[in-house]
Amino acid sequence: MENFWFFKKKRNSNPGGNGLRKNLILDEKGINTTYSGRFNAFLATLDFNNLKYKIIETYRNDEKQADYYKQGREIPGNVITNARPGESYHNYGAALDLVPIDKNGKVDFTDAIAYFEMGVAASKHGLEWGGSWKSLKDSGHFQIPSKEISIDELKLKYPLA
Fold this sequence. Notes:
It is a single chain. The chain contains four helices and four strands, in the order H-E-H-E-H-E-E-H. By secondary structure, it is an alpha+beta fold. The protein has a single domain, classed as 2-Layer Sandwich (Muramoyl-pentapeptide Carboxypeptidase, domain 2). Strands 1-2-4-3 form a four-stranded antiparallel beta sheet, with helices on one face.
């Protein structure tokens, strides 16, 4: 399995193109370099505990966020987010989504035990786990805690270009 936990500073502008957010520096996996150390440690813990995973999303630009927000509202499908563009921690490289990998090497979106173990590991590294949310649970979502930095603070720190 490919290890994703070793992040290097590679980009000095965001991968969403068009310089959508000022001051945002992402590592090669799309994690805000301000937080990449904490995410590295979390993923290293998963590796150490032999929890197999695949990173399915990190940074997300506002255009993609708008598409996700429309799902289940303006286009067919289930609602997958309550966050409008600029309202998701993904929009600032401060979140990542993982999916467990089963013993056969296949992604398994239904493995509640693996998600729970990931959530426990995330909490040990000071990350917020979407599986603990009261509404619209997102078991594969991990982010910098909203108690630590709010969306409003992120908007001020990383304004639209």
